[in-house]
Specification:
alpha+beta, globular, about 20% strand
Length: about 110
């Protein structure tokens, strides 16, 4: 955990954020600045700055399974998954996170 990371603070409960999904590896919560009718972030519980720093193959798989389970729980049958890696690619929070984007009908 990083003391100055907003996602680490969310994971630790500092803001009382409601998780739409959680397991031992990650949490998922609604994006506060949604770019689609459904915009959920899946975030690992351990601090990893970006996809470039992720070395744990098990965690990689767990994140994708969490995306699948979160999308199902949100009622999405079709959705996009986006990972911004690096400032030049649009990453604003330097804690790895996967965006699930869709709408209530399951279309993107």
């Amino acid at each position: 955990m990083s003391n100055d990371c907003i996602f680490c603070k969310i994971i630790s409960g500092d803001f009382g954020t409601e998780f739409v999904y959680e397991n031992e590896y990650c949490v998922a919560f609604n994006d506060i600045n949604p770019k689609a009718p459904v915009h959920i972030l899946v975030v690992p519980k351990v601090h990893v700055a970006s996809l470039n720093e992720l070395e744990d193959k098990n965690l990689m798989g767990e994140l994708l399974m969490a995306v699948k389970e979160t999308a199902k729980k949100a009622g999405l049958s079709a959705y996009r998954v986006q990972i911004n890696t690096g400032k030049e690619a649009g990453q604003e929070v330097f804690h790895l996170h996967l965006h699930i984007l869709g709408n209530k009908k399951g279309n993107i």
